[in-house]
Amino acid sequence: MRKFRLALSLLVAAVLIAVGQSPARAAVWGSSDQWATWNNGGYTLYNNIWGSGAGPQSIWANSYSNWGVWANHPNTGGIKSYPNASKSVNIRLSSLRSASSSFNVTVPSSGAYTSAYDIWMDGHTYEIMLWMNKQGAVGPLGSFQTNATVGGHTWGVYRGSNGANQVFSFVRTGNTNAGNVDIRAVLNWIRTRGWYGDVTLSTIQFGYEITSASGGLNFVTNSYSASAS
């Protein structure tokens, strides 16, 4: 057990050095566990290595707003992980006065992944993905519906089902690594299309949906926050 803990500590330290943090400024929390979680400031961070064929991945965090992962997933198809910061909301859309978020990330120029919001409505009945950045051989679920300018961005909108829930994917027409999103506006836009009714905003998540990161790649959240009332 002592050897395992030492090995884990060395791995996390190596990741921190790789993302530019010296051992003297080591992160507040880190883990290589598949389902590692950490609660901070009303958010929960998840390592969340859920896909088949995944390689190693380590998560580190100084806060819910400043965290990242090192991932070394093979260059094969299928999503391997979705490390993310999650915030519970649980407000019905008709009562939602505001819901917004800001983010600033540093991501690799290789691999296959998206920097994306994953927003859940009525528990896990409806899933809304906002793709802010995509790299490599990745694509949204379902069929193309229309282009839309809403929430402060212009998107290609896709609709489909993964067999468990309805999925609405908003793929930004140009990649960005920083910005603000009016989430409430997006949710209401979907409602006006008749794709759901007066549902409840359950959870807002933001992170990296990683398909491949061969050789080891770093994903860094420089700052992030989400709010709803």
Let me know the largest β-sheet.
9 strands, mixed
Helix proportion range = 10-25%
Instruction: Please report the distance between the alpha carbons of the first and last residues.
Output: 45 Å
What order do the helices and strands follow? HEEEEEEEEEEEEEHEE
In what order do the strands lie side by side in the largest sheet?
2-3-6-14-8-9-12-11-10
Question: In total, how many beta strands?
Answer: 15
Report the total helices. 2
**What global shape is seen?**
globular
Mean pLDDT, rounded to whole units?
Answer: 92
Low-confidence stretches: 1-24
- Rg, Cα atoms, Å: 17 Å
Helices and strands: which structural class?
mainly beta
Strand content: over 45%
General description of the model:
With 229 residues, the chain is mainly beta. 12% of the residues lie in helices and 50% in strands. The chain contains 2 helices and 15 strands. The strands form 2 sheets. It has a 9-stranded mixed beta sheet with strand order 2-3-6-14-8-9-12-11-10, with helices on one face. Strands 1-4-5-15-7-13 form a 6-stranded antiparallel beta sheet. The longest helix has 17 residues. The chain is globular.
List keywords for this structure.
229 residues, mainly beta, nine-stranded mixed β-sheet, 15 strands, 50% strand
SSE layout and pairings?
Layout: H1 2-18, E1 29-31, E2 37-40, E3 43-46, E4 57-63, E5 66-71, E6 84-92, E7 99-106, E8 112-121, E9 126-135, E10 143-150, E11 153-161, E12 166-172, E13 178-182, H2 183-192, E14 200-212, E15 217-228
Parallel strand pairs: 9-12
Antiparallel strand pairs: 1-4, 2-3, 3-6, 4-5, 5-15, 6-14, 7-13, 7-15, 8-9, 8-14, 10-11, 11-12
